[in-house]
């Protein structure tokens, strides 16, 4: 994660069912679904003003840290999150082994 995003807090916006960070009034976020022992990440998006800044990667990393700290398992349905984990295999440890694409990570 780029240094400029480290101090920006991750918000779990339960009303909108998304994890988000705000950067200069613009948002990068991941839509999620949550069960007792799992969090499914469905879609990652960043406002156009944040394109190419690394904000999407930052919200993914912050969200993965949140999931790890929560003790829940991850279901990475979002293609961006899935690709991020393939690129950073240390995160595979939080993916639910029952996830359909687990062996592709």
TrEMBL record:
Stretches assigned to the N-acetyltransferase domain: 11-96
Transmembrane segments: none
Name of the protein in question: N-acetyltransferase domain-containing protein
Organism: Epilithonimonas mollis
